[in-house]
Write a structure and sequence with these properties.
This protein is α/β, with parallel strands linked by helices. The chain is built from 26 helices and 33 strands. Among the domains are: 1-57, no CATH class; 546-629 and 930-961, Urease, subunit C, domain 1 (Roll); 650-926, Metal-dependent hydrolases (TIM Barrel, Alpha-Beta Barrel), CATH 3.20.20. Helix 19 packs parallel to helix 21. The strands form four sheets. Strands 17, 18, 19, 20, 21, 22, 31, 32 and 33 form a nine-stranded mixed β-sheet that branches. Strands 1, 2, 3, 4, 5, 14, 15 and 16 form an eight-stranded mixed β-sheet that branches. An eight-stranded mixed β-sheet has the order 6-7-8-9-10-11-12-13. The structure holds 2-acetamido-2-deoxy-beta-D-glucopyranose (4 copies). One 2-acetamido-2-deoxy-beta-D-glucopyranose binds at residues 725, 728.
Length: 961
């Protein structure tokens, strides 16, 4: 994990980042961390009110002093007349008014339950009217453009309370790593604004997902990391960081606009637990001590200020002879926290951390705005309720978890459990941990797992506005509020919903939007399954509920009321609908024995004969579906339990280019992923319960030579069970990465030499099979330039060997540039992530997909007849930080279908995540051997179906959940 990508997950850069480095940076950083750990000394600067000590009792600057004292107790908030404003302070003169007609408007009011059908008028950077726009009002605006929403959903802009846009950058550069300072554990004087790079591709990309406002936080390497700032994600004429700010503190630029106005909210980042510990070698005990030390210092200052001001206000100047207003620039922000002027934003994961921080809030008497990440918050609502003044909001991920121990007990049911406990729920991105463009999808996932519709929408709109102290101007569609509005192509909680227009400060951000027609069912929130049992179990088992099947049935099982049956075609190249809604009748029946379908036609005699047997087990799918089990490739699934916890991971293959290699590596030994497999990991079981039945995994490696990939069952308890290893060896895997040594051309040279048989030992044997076209070669690569070289290399090898080489690219973000050439060269692609993001330079040329481009990257490749499989959406391109995301494969595939229905049918979408992955990775599935997945309420490809069973012929069972 690269800290600039996701500063909050891990501050370390010791892991390999595909496409950017083989570790040259690692040693530098270790030295860097080592040095920084010692830097605990604080340099105290002080600014004082300039009193003339020579003057008699009454100081010259008496008004300044009294103003200062008068401001101390003022609480932040909008001025009283804020609601009467006719222009926004962010209004760009010359901006035309916008009239949006015929919207279905989710206003955010009335607990998110108010929906108004009607129009909205935006002018002067604010909302002028909602619902009915009078002709006289319209006439009073000089000129306006009209957007006909045709009944579409309209919401306020999406608000992200946890983002690192700008303090990192996309693509990532060593020169822009401004998220974390390593100069000490307590740094309340630092400001994210001071590191806000304006050339991050994320601004535009995130805005295209409807995100209009973000809180830019420093990273989490420090117990106190610094001040955070709220920005709007639209470009400004000034092009400066400052011009992006929303309601910055008045004195930011040294001018107090109006000393008698209430101040504006400030934000302070704190972090508990593993991250500060990793950087400073601190324990949790040390972190609490440095907090207490810092807050004690602030409290002393505050008390001194209050004592000073008490005398000043009483005009007891003789008692203040020679004294100045007590303040220290380094500590003023903490003093403001104690005065209730700062939203305390705290990264905390575990019960112990909440307990500590809540105690701190009580000891020093300050409220906590939100706990961020907060993976265990749902287990300890009573602790949250003990926080000073009010329970903090909980800002979290939907399904992103288990990347470190602190996040191990996460539950996808946490949002609904917290909401049931009356706690404010916020979904956040930690951009680019989750690309904030997809923040509304986090709310949609929370909704799928049980968060009510009104609360789910509020969780990324109105509730974050409250957490930021900005609910007087954003987070609602209400007269006088900021003109930040999103027009959606479907209900925002439906799968793959995409803005058709995003308006920030009354300015449209998407010049010409590409959106596809969504089905009628997507014009309302999905009818989500019932997960009450699972949610109760999550709490009962303290976040580690049993995930394996509740029953495994070997004998006859009959699925009734099956609306769709999708199966592999006879050649195993695609998916076909065996029967579907087109076939009428009272619902179809499928008979299964030993996990294998015996018949799927009630009308046939053979089927009827089974149905007559006694003791058959009947499972009613209530109009659900049977579809192929999905296959995942592209993560370290099966090789790790907790990515950042070394004691739980397989480790890394030795680097092929290392100066000294172990003797057996020298002898050409190629690691086999099958030898390192771990079964029944939580990521594997969660994926299994979500319809992914087979994992294909390469040996974990950060260097060039990976080894031999393996295919295994995600439902098996251990390797020796029947069907646990699906195919021992499926392909040979190598990775191309950017670093100083070895160069890309050296890596190409190495691959050429391996393919030409210039090496000895185990390598030679496997690469010979590759050159003979008997085993696929899978190459992790993103850059179109390297891909072009590989296309040439393939031809070169084929000319020599006279056999077609099976080549598959993994990652392949820039493959679209060479779609035609890849298709001609018969090279397939596992696109990972399926929805591209420019994490690195080699991934910078993305197809952004709707609304920014007509095609999604996958639709573009499919149109060019490239065989495409999808990898996990994951956290970035890294294999070890993608395993958590495998469970979402079904939704990623469905997303492709709903985004490009004319290019990607449901059958194609299912193929993208099953047979295509198998073919591209060399997994051979005999006819009838492939798994099927049973869903109720809908199919795998949407937010309505729930997986209830897996049918596995290889394992000879039907697993029930
Ligand atoms: C709003 O749009 C819907 C969908 O296009 C249409 O059926 C309806 O007639 C429109 N209503 C108005 C008032 O224009
Ligand atoms: C300082 O910022 C305020 C807005 O907060 C602005 O009105 C003022 O003009 C700025 N002053 C300078 C010198 O830039
Ligand atoms: C897979 O590997 C196991 C253990 O090495 C071996 O027993 C088994 O025969 C292999 N299966 C195949 C199909 O190669
Ligand atoms: C893709 O394949 C189809 C069917 O073979 C063919 O008609 C079409 O022209 C091909 N498209 C491209 C871009 O090669």
């Amino acid at each position: 994990m690269e800290k600039i990508i996701a500063p909050d997950l891990d501050d370390t850069s010791r892991r390999y980042r595909p496409g950017t480095g083989h570790g040259s940076r690692i040693s530098r950083l270790i030295v860097f961390f080592g040095l920084c750990a010692l830097t605990l000394t604080f340099v105290l600067a002080s600014t004082v009110v300039n009193l003339h000590s020579s003057s008699p009792a009454v100081p010259l600057h008496v008004h300044e002093i009294l103003d200062k004292c008068a401001r101390l107790p003022l609480k932040p908030g909008p001025p009283d007349d804020f609601g009467n404003r006719s222009y926004s302070d962010r209004y760009v003169p010359g901006t035309k008014a916008i009239l949006i007609t015929n919207g279905t408007i989710w206003t955010g009011r009335n607990q998110g339950l108010e929906i108004i059908k009607g129009d909205i008028l935006l002018h002067g950077g604010i909302i002028k009217a909602v619902g009915y726009v009078s002709q006289s009002l319209l006439d009073s605006t000089t000129e306006h453009v009209t957007i006909d929403a045709h009944g579409a959903w309209i919401t306020p802009g999406i608000i992200d309370v946890h983002s690192h846009i700008g303090v990192g950058t996309a693509p990532a550069f060593d020169g822009v790593e401004d998220g974390n300072s390593f100069k000490g554990p307590i740094q309340p004087w630092l400001r994210s604004l001071d590191g806000l790079n304006t050339h991050d591709d994320s601004y535009k990309i995130s805005a295209a997902g409807g995100v209009t406002t973000s809180l830019i936080l420093p990273g989490s390497a420090n117990a106190i990391g610094g001040q955070a700032f709220v920005i709007k994600l639209r470009p400004t004429k000034e092009r400066s960081p400052t011009s992006l700010l929303l309601e910055p503190p008045f004195d930011l630029n040294g001018t107090n606009v109006n000393p008698h106005q209430p101040p504006r909210w400030r934000h302070m980042k704190h972090a508990c637990g593993e991250n500060p510990a990793r950087v400073y070698g601190d324990t949790r005990m040390d972190d609490v001590w440095v907090w207490r030390q810092a807050y004690n210092k602030a409290r002393e200052l505050k008390n001194a200020q209050d004592a000073f001001c008490q005398k000043a206000v009483a005009r007891e100047w003789e008692n203040l002879e020679g004294q100045t207003f007590p303040e220290e620039l380094q500590w003023e922000a903490l003093v403001d926290i104690l005065r209730g002027k700062v939203k305390v934003q705290t990264h905390c994961y575990e019960a112990v951390d909440f307990d500590n921080f809540v105690r701190l809030s009580q000891e020093f008497e300050f409220p906590v705005a939100a706990f961020h990440h907060a993976h265990e918050a749902y287990l300890v609502p009573d602790v949250l309720k003990k926080a000073y003044e009010h329970p903090p909001a909980i800002a979290m991920f939907s399904t992103f978890a288990r990347y470190k121990r602190e996040a191990f007990r996460h539950s996808e049911f946490a949002p609904r459990i917290l909401a049931d406990n009356g706690i404010d729920v916020v979904m956040k991105s930690d951009h680019a941990a989750i690309v904030s463009r997809y923040l509304v999808n986090e709310a949609a996932l929370a909704h799928y797992y049980g968060l009510p519709e009104n609360i789910a929408l509020a969780s990324v709109i109105s509730t974050p506005a409250k957490v930021l102290g900005l609910e007087h101007r954003i987070g609602y569609i209400k007269e006088g509020y900021d003109a930040d509005v999103v027009v959606w192509d479907s209900h925002p909680l439906s799968l793959g919903s995409t803005p058709a227009q995003v308006i920030i400060d009354g300015i449209a951000q998407i010049p010409s939007a590409y959106v596809s027609a969504k089905p009628a069912s997507h014009s309302r929130a999905p009818n989500t399954p019932n997960f009450n049992r699972e949610a109760t179990s999550a709490v009962k088992f303290e976040g580690l509920p049993p995930l394996g099947p509740s029953e495994s049935l070997e004998d006859l099982v009959v699925f009734v009321s099956v609306e769709h049956l999708w199966v592999r075609d006879a050649a195993g190249n695609g998916i076909v609908e065996a029967f579907g809604s087109r076939r009428s009748g009272s619902g179809n029946t499928v008979v299964v024995q030993h996990g294998r379908v015996l018949c799927s036609d009630v009308a046939s005699d053979s089927c009827l004969s089974y149905l007559a047997l006694p003791d058959i087990r009947v499972i009613d799918l209530h109009g659900g579906s049977l579809q192929p089990g999905l296959v995942s490739f592209g993560s370290n699934l099966g090789l790790q339990e907790i990515a950042m916890e070394d004691s739980t991971v397989d480790g890394e293959a030795p680097d092929y280019f290392a100066v000294s290699t172990p003797p057996f590596v020298e002898a050409g030994y190629l690691p086999r992923a099958m030898d390192g497999l771990q079964y029944a990991t939580r990521d594997a079981l969660l994926a299994y319960r979500s319809g992914v039945t087979v994992g294909i995994t390469a040996p974990s490696h950060s260097g060039f030579l990976g080894g031999l990939t393996t295919a295994f069952s995600l439902g098996s308890a251990h390797k020796l069970e029947r069907g646990a290893l699906v195919q021992n060896i499926t392909a040979v895997h190598v990775s191309f990465g950017r670093s100083v040594i070895p160069s890309i051309s050296t890596q190409v040279a190495a691959l050429r030499s391996l393919l030409q048989g210039h090496t000895e030992g185990d390598h030679a044997k496997w690469f010979r099979l590759v050159s003979q076209g008997k085993l696929p070669l899978v190459i992790r690569v993103d850059s179109a330039d390297i891909i072009a070289t590989l296309i040439e290399l393939k031809k070169e090898v084929e000319t020599a060997s006279q056999a077609p080489l099976k080549m598959t690219l993994e990652g392949a973000t820039e493959a679209h540039i060479l779609a035609r050439e890849l298709s001609e060269a018969n090279i397939g692609v596992i696109l990972k992530p399926p929805r591209s993001f420019p994490y690195t330079w080699d991934q910078r040329r993305i197809v952004p997909g709707p609304p920014l481009s007509e095609d999604s990257p996958i639709a573009h490749l499919v149109k060019h007849n490239v065989t495409v499989g999808i990898g996990p959406q994951g956290t970035n391109a890294m294999a070890d930080l993608s395993a958590w995301a495998v469970r979402n494969t079904r939704f990623d595939a469905g997303w492709e279908h709903y985004e490009s229905p004319n290019v990607i049918s449901k059958e194609t979408a299912l193929a993208l995540a099953s047979v295509n992955v198998e073919r591209l990775l060399g997994l051979e599935t005999m006819p009838g051997e492939g798994d099927l997945v049973a869903t109720t309420g809908g199919d795998l490809l949407d937010f309505e179906g729930k997986v209830v069973a897996v049918l596995s012929p290889r394992r000879g069972v039907v697993d029930l959940f």
